[in-house]
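Long-time lurker, first post. I've been practising inverse folding by hand and with some scripts of my own, and I keep getting stuck on stretches where the structure tokens seem ambiguous. Below is the full token string for one chain I'm working on. Before anyone asks, I'm not after the true native sequence, just a reasonable design that respects the backbone. If someone could post their per-position residues I'd love to compare against what I wrote down in my notebook.
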């Protein structure tokens, strides 16, 4: 038994916690607020509430609101230049995973020379060590999907390469998880994000590096999602369901650094790198049944798949395929069982290139899979998932 548990993030969890931001020991005097290009942070007043809190704490702030749902490296470089130019001494990510991940990457580039891809250890990235510590990062999450508020990871796209990066200095110093800010997420996005959180936990649970600590958070996260994701999708104003899903997501973030994702995420990143309009969670849902069927058939993870099926609510589970069945059931309950690759312009002719991209950009995750998954297997998983 062994594990390495390091979480240097203060996590403030609960309804109304955003209102306590001004009372926190903030890590600087001038913040770069990184948020999405979309209207929701302004429309629902979250940005104004954040700015009011910062004003109360006598912290100056500069706004950078250009982030796209699949965030791109150009905006990382632009945000970092703005932080340098305006002398910001910390970064706040406000929004979903894309805004918080961008905030982390901007924090790195605000204190370092060169291009962000110089530091990326995959694809055409140069994998150089980061010279200077990033600016401190504060995360305020308004979705329950990526778990980025509780892990060091940031996923940025450069052309057709969508790659995760992070190390102990890219953990947020402070994260606010306030389920009240998630009430306005529409049903389909609640489902996509909830399944992303679910897969962070299920992948982390099947990962060969899984351990007592990651298992604790993974199984709890899976059971919270099985219990409450359908209710949060059906009625976004259901406070108890939103809180369960938010907690499941934060726990899934902890799974992401105590254990970690496996190749389901590499395959999905290829899909959404080639088709940036495809939401990450939707891409995961599309490939999930074929992917987990492959693992079930491998015979490497029988006991763990049965435990995951039980955590999802299938109490009489006894076979690894029971997990795939429970997963399908949850997708039906959340109205996401009939997502189609073809609706996003994905074509079977791309499967070879997608498999190559998955192996080249995020090949490391295949090394922690519980079973061997080859290029041909990836193509087959994509074929089985296609409609
Ligand atoms: Zn994910």
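-- Answer (accepted) --
I ran through it position by position. Result:
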């Amino acid at each position: 038994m062994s594990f390495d548990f390091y979480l240097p993030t203060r996590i403030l969890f609960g309804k109304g916690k955003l209102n306590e931001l001004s009372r926190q020991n903030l890590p600087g005097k001038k913040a770069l607020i990184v948020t999405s290009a979309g209207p929701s942070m302004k429309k629902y007043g979250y940005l104004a509430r954040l700015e009011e809190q910062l004003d109360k704490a006598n912290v100056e702030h500069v706004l950078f609101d250009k982030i796209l749902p699949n965030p791109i490296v150009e905006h990382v470089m632009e945000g970092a230049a703005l932080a340098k130019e305006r002398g910001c001494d910390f970064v706040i990510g406000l929004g979903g995973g894309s805004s918080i991940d961008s905030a982390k990457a901007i924090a790195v580039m605000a204190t370092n020379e060169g291009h962000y891809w110089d530091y990326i250890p995959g694809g055409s990235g140069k994998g150089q060590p980061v010279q200077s510590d990033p600016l401190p990062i504060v995360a305020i999450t308004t979705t329950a999907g990526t778990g980025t508020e509780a892990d060091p990871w940031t996923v940025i796209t450069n052309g057709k390469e969508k790659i995760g990066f992070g190390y102990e200095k890219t953990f947020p110093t402070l994260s606010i998880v306030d389920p009240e800010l998630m009430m306005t997420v529409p049903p389909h996005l609640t489902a996509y994000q909830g399944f992303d959180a679910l897969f962070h936990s299920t992948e982390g649970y099947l990962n060969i590096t899984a351990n007592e600590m990651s298992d604790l958070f993974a199984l709890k996260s899976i059971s919270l999602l099985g219990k409450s994701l359908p209710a949060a999708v059906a009625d976004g104003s259901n406070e108890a369901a939103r809180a369960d899903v938010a907690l499941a997501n934060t726990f899934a973030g902890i799974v992401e650094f105590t254990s970690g994702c496996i190749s389901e995420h590499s395959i999905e990143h290829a899909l959404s790198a080639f088709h940036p309009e495809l939401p990450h969670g939707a891409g995961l849902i599309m490939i999930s049944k074929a992917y987990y069927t492959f693992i079930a058939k491998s015979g490497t993870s029988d006991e763990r798949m049965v435990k995951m099926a039980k955590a999802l609510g299938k109490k009489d589970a006894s076979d690894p395929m029971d997990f795939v069945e429970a997963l399908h059931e949850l997708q039906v309950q959340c109205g996401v069982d009939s997502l189609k690759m073809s609706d996003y312009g994905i074509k079977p002719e791309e499967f070879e290139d997608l498999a190559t991209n998955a192996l080249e950009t995020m090949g490391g995750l295949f090394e922690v899979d519980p079973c061997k998954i080859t290029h041909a297997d990836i193509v087959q998983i994509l074929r089985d998932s296609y409609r």
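A couple of notes from the structure itself: The chain has two domains: 10-182, 188-385. Residues 146, 196, 200, 265, 280 surround zinc ion (CB under 6 Å). Happy to go over any region you disagree with.
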